[in-house]
Amino acid sequence: MGVNRLSMVLGAALVAGVLLTLAVAAEPAPRPAGVHSAQSAALKIVLTLDSADVPVSAPGTWVPVYLQNITDQVGGFEVSLLLERPDLFKFPADSTIETTIVCIDQIDCNPADTTIDTVAVSPVDTVGMAIHGWEFVQARALSPINLKLAALANEPSPPATPPLATGGPRLLCKVYLEKVAPQSMLDTLQDRKTRIFIDHNSTSFSTPNGTTIGRLSDTNCVNPPSCTQIDTVFYTDTTAFLFVDGVRQFGPGCTRGDVNANGTINSADIIYLVNFVFKGGPVPQCNPNTGDVNCNLVVNSADIIYLVNYVFKGGPPPGNC
Description:
Elements: H1 3-20, E1 45-49, E2 52-54, E3 60-69, E4 76-83, E5 89-90, E6 95-101, E7 115-122, E8 124-125, E9 136-143, E10 146-152, E11 167-179, H2 183-186, E12 193-198, E13 204-206, E14 215-221, E15 230-236, E16 241-244, E17 246-250, H3 267-279, H4 301-313
Parallel strand pairs: 1-16, 2-17
Antiparallel strand pairs: 1-3, 3-11, 4-10, 4-12, 4-13, 5-11, 6-7, 7-9, 8-11, 9-10, 12-17, 14-15
Helix pairs in contact: 1-3, 1-4, 3-4
């Protein structure tokens, strides 16, 4: 650029530098440690999904599933997962097969009722994990946002793959999420994360002999006052389980503060932003949002002050918003 124009730009940057001495640099709030509510002594199962960032260029992501079984051996389970954001990810259905729907416990399922059904199979990885070698492991995509993961150990049938002894946490398996959102969409989204919920009502665990873990019973009098007929009602003990949902978030396609999109945030970005705000220069590269470094949904002189503070004064980095 010409000498006069450069002088004007640098002059504006210096003005911004003076202004920043009047601004109070906000320290980022400390992140609170994860706190779980107190559990009763009846806690038997802890099921956890991890949280992670996903590169925007990745076709999908694997979600590890961890289990800690505190009081009982586990010989089978059925876990239902739900996605919050079908616009970002889906549970893929790689193939459709005719398969046997097996029972994992003797209370909720009568083995005599086992049926053959058509199942949309989703990828599941068990290699080197706790349930590798179990007789039956399958992930079924009931819909793009609902996955049913079922597994059954084959003990006592030889050669025995033993059930899970008490202990953990241990990695059970990994299930797959396929990216749905196109790159163009991700570049315009500010919220690019989804929770992966564990559906409490459709998740259960059983011991090797088929007894459901965490199941209580009550007896009800059918014909009071004689009570010659008694019904037994089974229900889930909600204090027996702790379910920890997971999160998947796409990493930034465009980096806030890197307004010239050269891969680094430095004084060149300050000059670029000054040009845009005060001189009608080109919009920030990659995405206009890269200039909104303080996350207030507008690009103005406050963003210049914020960026000068970050580059030259060790201030907080551009916001992850």
